[in-house]
Write a structure and sequence with these properties.
By secondary structure, the chain is of the alpha+beta class. It has two helices and five strands. It has a domain of 64 residues.
Length: 108
């Protein structure tokens, strides 16, 4: 491999337009942990182990490269170590076919 390049070879299930299997996004990973946190200023912080970023990358690749319907969405806890949902606040990730324009009111 050439210096300064990262080679990626990956096979993920394409699933269906209305569903996703997550097992392959965790396959072979030892510590897939991440945490999202909203700041008081309205920003978002993300912390993750290298395996946590790998899991998220695989998840986003599945969204980008499978034929999901417009509006397909999934819910994720803000902190995950690969186990079951804790029922806490969640992150919702949604597919849209066109960029959404953010409307800002005059008082903002």
């Amino acid at each position: 491999m050439a210096k300064g390049l990262i080679k990626v070879e990956l096979e993920l299930s394409a699933d269906t337009p209305n569903s996703m299997r997550f097992g392959d996004t965790y396959e072979g990973l030892e510590t897939p942990w991440y945490r999202f946190e909203a700041t008081l200023e309205g920003g978002v912080n993300l912390w993750a182990t290298p395996d946590g970023f790998e899991h998220l990358a695989r998840f986003f690749l599945k969204l980008a490269r499978s034929d999901k319907v417009d509006g397909y969405h999934s819910h994720h806890t803000l902190e995950s170590g690969g186990g079951p949902s804790t029922g806490d606040a969640e992150l919702t990730i949604t597919i849209v076919r066109e960029p959404m324009v953010r409307l800002v009111s005059a008082g903002s």
